[in-house]
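Appendix B. One record, verbatim.
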Amino acid sequence: MRGGRLRILGEEIVGCRRCPRLVSWREQVAAEKRAAFRDEDYWGRPVPGFGDPDAALVVVGLAPAAHGANRTGRMFTGDRSGDWLYGALFASGFANQPQSVDREDGLELSRAWVTAPVRCAPPSNQPTPAERDNCADWFQRELDLLHGAAVFVALGQYGYQSLWRYLGNSVELPRPRPRFGHGEEVTLGDGRSVLMSFHPSQQNTFTGRLTREMFAAVFSRARALVDRAT
C-alpha cells in the first residue's frame, strides 16, 4: 500500500514545474549535455525519492546533480557522490550492490530510502529559499509515507536544516538546534535518531575533508541504530 502511494507521489513530483529558474536550468542541461554523455537521453525532470517503502533508514541529500540524477532520473545515481553513498549503503547491508549507474542497473535498497529536499538540479548546486520552500510539500509528503523511519542520515548542512524543519512538525526538538558536524548524533524525543555527515561531494572527498573511513563509520552507526530500533 505504501509503495503504491509513494509511486503515485513520485509521478506527481516528476511533473512539477513550480520553479521557473530550475525548470529552465534542468532542461538546458539536458539539452546541451556533457560531452562524456552526449549519446545519452537525459532525464531533465524532477527526481523522486528511491528505495524501500518499508525503510527504517532515510538518507537526505541536497538536490540532484546536473549530470548525475538530472541525467539518470534516480537520486545519487551516475556521479561520484552516488559511488560513495551506495558503496557505503552496500557495505552496511542496505543495498544489494555498491554501484549506481542508471535506473536499470538492478540496484535495490533494503530498509533504506534516499531523498532530497530539492528535486531539480539547481545552478551551482544552490537552490534559493523560495525554491526550497516550493519543494517542501513534496519532501513532507514523501517522508510522511515512510512510517517505519527510525534513523535519518543528513548529508550536509542543507539536508540537515531541511530535515530539522520537517521533524519539527511532528516531534519536540532540542533547543537550540544542535550544530551540524560530521559524525554528530541527535536522539529525538520519540526515540528516533538523526546522524550527520559531510556531503560526499567532490568538494569534500577530493580535498580529504571526508574520507571513506569517516563516511563508512556514519553508516555503520546507522546500521546499529536501525537494528536496535527494529
